[in-house]
Amino acid sequence: MERATESAQTSHVRLVPWSEGDFDLLVRHNAPEMTAHLGGPETHEKLLDRHQRYLGLDDRQGGMFRIVTHPEGETAGIVGFWETTHQGEDVWEAGWGVLPECQGRGIAAAAVRLAVAEARRTGRHRHLHAYPAADNAPSNGVCRKTGFTLLGEEDMEYPKGHWMRCNDWRLDLEQQA
Q1: Distance between CA atoms of 33 and 75, rounded to whole angstroms?
Q2: Most buried in the list 19, 102, 143, 156, measured by CB within 10 Å?
Q3: Under a CB-based contact definition with an 8 Å cutoff, are residues 136 and 126 in contact?
């Protein structure tokens, strides 16, 4: 099932639910330049585990998507949201990555807007958070462009054993953009 939007802001991007054939995209995202703000590349075994988690998500747990541009049909990256608890509140957490050859074209912001619509559609949680590294200017810019509110900085452990300084961005899903 493919989802698209009529919005002019996102009309050049669509989201395709994560599928078995998307493992190679996950491998491409595991490159040093794509994981520099996430603690570096993961092992092959961890990627296999991540792929299985993505395949197992449903509306109650979140959703992961392959980002596709159209009309070209080019695979441009990954976006999604999943359930987490932050400061005692059950929330959605969002994450994304756009392949280097597709960066700088507004694809990340368009894909995040579509993912926000999917998270809002579930009606499960009021808030969607994103936690980009404080020094990750492009991802922080995407949060700003897509309507998130910066709550401040905090230290987060990701991946396990690696602490990083992150910005906590929050979007109220009960308010329409």
Answers
A1: 18
A2: 143
A3: no
Name the pTM for this structure: 0.89
Which token pair is 125?
């949680």
Q: Which residues pair with 14 in a beta bridge?
A: 68
Tokens 């330049």 found at: 33
Residue 130: what pLDDT? 97
- Contacts of residue 115, defined as CB under 8 A and 6 or more positions apart, other chains included, come to 15, 63, 65, 79, 80, 81, 94, 96
Angle in degrees, CA 149, 154, 160, rounded to 5: 120
Q: Enumerate helices (H) and strands (E) in the chain, giving the number of each.
A: 5, 7
Contact 7, 113 (CB under 8 A): yes
In tens, the pLDDT along 6-41 reads: 344 457 899 999 999 999 999 999 998 998 888 889
CA 40 distance to own-chain centroid: 17
- Torsion on CA atoms 143, 66, 30, 34, rounded to nearest 10: -30
pLDDT attached to residue 2: 42
CA–CA separation, 165 vs 177, rounded Å? 28
Q: What is the mean pLDDT of the chain?
A: 90
Q: How far apart are CA 66 and CA 73, in angstroms?
A: 11
Q: pLDDT at residue 108 above 90?
A: yes
